[in-house]
Amino acid sequence: MSHTTLVTVADLRAHLFDHDWVVVDCRHDLMNFAAGWEAFGAGHIPGATFAHVEEDLSGAKTGTNGRHPLPKRDALEAIFREWGVRNGSQIVAYDAQGGQFAARLWWLARWLGHERVAVLDGGWPAWLAATQWSSVEEPDRPIGDFVAGDSLVAVADAAQVLASLGRAEAPLLDARAAERYRGEQEPIDPVAGHIPGAANRFWQSNLADGKFKPVGQLHAEFETLLAGRAPAQLTHYCGSGVSAAHNALAMEIAGLPGSKLYAGSWSEWIVDKGRPVALGANP
């Protein structure tokens, strides 16, 4: 059976050492880039490898392409091979933040054309609570032969987002916390506010008790946001293209596939002073 959105702790435990299952620890802290690696060294799911959000799951910064630009496809393909990924592998990504960073790997794997990728529902806390099982050993896996294929996701760039402003048929959805969306607080980026016309759905709204809400509930909530529009019309963004993937994943779980991701997101948008900025609670 292929897992393409979520996998449970029970399912992962049953397949933990299957040769075609690759578990990737994506724990991270946007305020302390060393925190994820330190947490991995202190204890992780047995057999898991580590993905650094800044170094592995992001590309080089130019000063104009945001805080977490997309990596080069061939570079990410090589990283997947180092992790032992093959084209038939089941990738399972996890973190300790409700999937905030694991969803980035989920989305990137699909960007490389790999469908068998899922996020561990509940992540590291759920694993520990259910198994009390961790390891400090790094995995010894053979190099994989993964070859990237056609992308399974849609990407929007700044020019496309700019051209869509004011068009009701091209909705934007901001995944940041409400106070950042409104421009009341901005702990990371130099400019506060949101892209004009964007609605707000904080990525944590997809969760209940650390796990994703039931399918029916997610479907109803996103259908309300879509207001009759097709999922493919909607573009997600956040601060840097990481947590926006969580909303994209939630829509897939809800049976509403095909939404786009503005990869550069807010941190790219604000670099060009000619791009408009909105403040307050209204789109």
How does this structure look, described?
This protein has two domains: 6-131, Oxidized Rhodanese, domain 1 (3-Layer(aba) Sandwich); 154-269, 3-Layer(aba) Sandwich (Oxidized Rhodanese, domain 1), CATH 3.40.250. The chain is 29% helix and 13% strand. The protein contains ten helices and twelve strands. It has helices at residues 9-15, 35-42, 73-82, 102-111, 123-131, 158-164, 178-182, 215-226, 244-253, 265-269, and strands spanning 6-7, 21-25, 49-50, 90-94, 117-120, 154-156, 172-174, 199-200, 207-208, 211-212, 235-237, 260-262. It has a five-stranded parallel β-sheet with strand order 1-5-4-2-3, sandwiched between helices. Strands 6-12-11-7-8 form a five-stranded parallel β-sheet. Helix 4 packs across helix 9 (244-253). The termini are far apart. The relative contact order is 0.16.
The tally of structural domains comes to: 2
Strand order of the largest sheet: 1-5-4-2-3
In the CATH classification, which architecture of the largest domain applies? 3-Layer(aba) Sandwich
Fraction in helix: 25-40%
Q: Specify the structural class.
A: alpha/beta
Order of SSEs: EHEHEHEHEHEHEHEEEHEHEH
Distance between the termini: 41 Å
Number of strands: 12
User: What is the beta-strand fraction?
Assistant: 5-15%
For this structure, the CATH topology of the largest domain is: Oxidized Rhodanese, domain 1
- Please report the first level of CATH classification, the CATH class of the largest domain: Alpha Beta
| Shape designation | globular
- How confident overall, as mean pLDDT? 97
Largest sheet: 5 strands, parallel
pLDDT < 50 runs, ≥5 residues: none
Can you say what the CATH homologous superfamily of the largest domain is?
Answer: Rhodanese-like domain
Q: What's the Cα radius of gyration?
A: 18 Å
Specify the number of helices. 10
